[in-house]
Design a protein that fits this description.
Blueprint: H1 3-13, H2 21-34, H3 41-52, H4 65-76, H5 83-104, H6 106-109, H7 113-116, H8 125-135, H9 137-144, H10 150-177, H11 183-211, H12 214-243, H13 254-262, H14 264-274, H15 281-286, H16 290-300, H17 304-325, H18 330-336, H19 338-356
Helix pairs in contact: 2-3, 3-17, 5-11, 5-12, 5-14, 8-11, 9-11, 10-11, 10-13, 10-14, 11-12, 12-13, 16-17, 18-19
Length: 360
C-alpha cells in the first residue's frame, strides 16, 4: 500500500483526530457561521467533541447527566433506537422484499403464460429463447440502462424521491405485466420493470447506512440481502397460491396475471410509507441544507447532541473526501491501485456468478 493511500485511509478514518481542543472549537464556530446554524452552536461544540473522541463525555463536565446517559446507552444498548429509525428500517425491508418479489413471481408465471402466447413448445429452441428473453428482460434493462441512472437520480432527487419513483415504477409495471396479451408486450412491460429494480437496489442500502447510527449500521445495511431473499420466498409462495385459480368468463390466464401483478403491492406500500420517512442527512448536507439535515437527524436520534455530532462529523467527512478527490481520477485508480483492482475483480466475479447460476 502506497504512502498516499495510507494517509488517505488515516484521514478518512477520523478527520478530527489530532486536532487541538481550541482549534476544534474555532472550527466549529466558523462552520456554524458559514452554514447558518449558529443557533445550534452549543450542541455542535459538544457534538464535535464526541465526534473526535466518542468516550470524552465520561471525562468532561460540559456534558449533562442526560447527555452522558444517552451517549453511554448508545453503546451498551445499541438496539434501543428512536421509533422513526425502525420505521425507516421497515420501509427499507419492504423495498428489499419488492426486489425479491419482482425477481421471483415470474417463476410460476412462466409455467403458464408461454402456452397462451404461442411460445410454449418445449421442443422449439426459438420458444425457449423467447421465454428466457422475457424472464431476463428486467436485468437486461438494468445492465444497459437503469443501473447507470442511479447516480443522477440520487444526485438530483435524493434518496427518498429515488426510492419513491423506483417503487412506483415497480408497482405500475407489475400491473402492466398482468394485463399483457402477447409475448412481446410482456417483454416490454418487464423491460421497463428494470427501471424500478436497478436504481432501487443501489439506493436503499445506502439510504439505510446514511440514516443509521454507527454501532448498528452494518447490521441494518445487510438486512437488504435478508429481506430480498424473503421477497423471493414470498414470491414463490404467491405463485403457488395463485396457480390453482380458475379463469372466470372472458379472462384467460388469470392465475399468472395475478402472480405478476401481485409483486407490485409491496412497491405501492413503500411509496406511501416513504412520504413520512426522513431524508438522508448526508445527502442534505451534500446539498448545503444543514438545517434540514439537523432536523432529520433529530428524528433519528434521541438527543440534539447526537444529532449535532453526526451533522458535524458527516460535514468533515464530506470535506475530507472532496479534498482527496482533487486532481484524482477514481475510475483510473480503480484499476491502477492494486487493492482497488483486486476488490473490483473479486466483486464482479461474485456478482456475475450469483446471477449467472440462476439462483434468483
Amino acid at each position: 500500500m502506497t504512502l498516499s493511500v495510507r494517509n488517505a485511509d488515516a484521514k478518512l478514518s477520523n478527520p478530527l483526530r489530532g486536532i487541538s481542543h481550541d482549534r476544534l472549537m474555532t472550527d466549529v464556530e466558523i462552520f456554524a457561521q458559514e452554514r447558518g446554524v449558529t443557533h445550534l452552536l452549543p450542541d455542535l461544540k459538544k457534538g464535535a467533541l464526541i465526534a473526535q473522541d466518542p468516550s470524552c463525555h465520561t471525562r468532561l463536565d460540559v456534558f449533562t447527566e442526560e447527555d452522558k446517559q444517552i451517549l453511554t446507552e448508545e453503546v451498551t444498548h445499541k438496539w434501543r433506537q428512536r421509533p422513526m429509525l425502525y420505521y425507516m428500517v421497515i420501509m427499507s425491508s419492504l423495498a428489499a422484499a419488492v426486489q425479491g418479489m419482482d425477481e421471483a413471481v415470474i417463476n410460476g408465471a412462466q409455467i403458464i403464460y408461454p402456452t397462451q402466447f404461442g411460445i410454449g413448445d418445449t421442443n422449439s429452441q426459438r420458444d425457449s429463447w423467447l421465454i428466457g428473453l422475457i424472464n431476463s428482460a428486467p436485468y437486461l434493462c438494468c445492465a444497459t440502462v437503469s443501473c447507470w441512472l442511479t447516480h443522477p437520480l440520487n444526485h438530483y432527487l435524493g434518496r427518498k424521491k429515488t426510492i419513491f419513483i423506483t417503487c412506483m415504477i415497480s408497482f405500475l409495471t407489475c400491473v402492466w405485466s398482468g394485463l399483457t396479451n402477447t409475448w412481446w408486450h410482456l417483454f416490454i412491460a418487464r423491460f421497463f420493470l428494470g427501471f424500478g429494480i436497478g436504481p432501487k437496489s443501489a439506493t436503499v442500502p445506502v439510504y439505510a447506512a446514511e440514516c443509521s447510527p454507527a454501532p448498528i449500521r452494518g447490521a441494518l445495511v445487510m438486512m437488504w440481502q435478508m429481506w430480498t431473499a424473503f421477497g423471493i420466498a414470498l414470491g414463490d409462495l404467491i405463485d403457488l397460491s395463485f396457480y390453482f385459480i380458475k379463469d372466470p368468463p372472458g379472462v384467460t390466464g388469470l392465475n399468472w396475471r395475478l402472480m405478476l401483478a401481485s409483486a407490485g403491492v409491496p412497491g405501492l406500500i413503500v411509496c406511501l410509507q416513504v412520504l413520512y420517512a426522513p431524508e438522508s442527512p448526508r445527502w442534505l448536507i451534500s446539498k448545503g441544507r444543514y438545517e434540514e439535515a439537523f432536523n432529520e437527524l433529530c428524528r433519528l436520534r434521541f438527543s440534539r447532541v447526537q444529532a449535532a455530532r453526526d451533522l458535524y462529523y458527516i460535514h468533515v467527512l464530506l470535506e475530507a473526501e472532496s479534498e482527496m478527490k482533487r486532481g484524482r481520477n477514481r475510475l483510473v485508480e480503480m484499476f491502477t491501485i492494486p487493492r482497488n483492482r483486486h476488490a473490483a475483480l473479486a466483486s464482479w466475479v461474485v456478482m456475475f456468478g450469483q446471477q449467472f447460476c440462476g439462483v434468483n
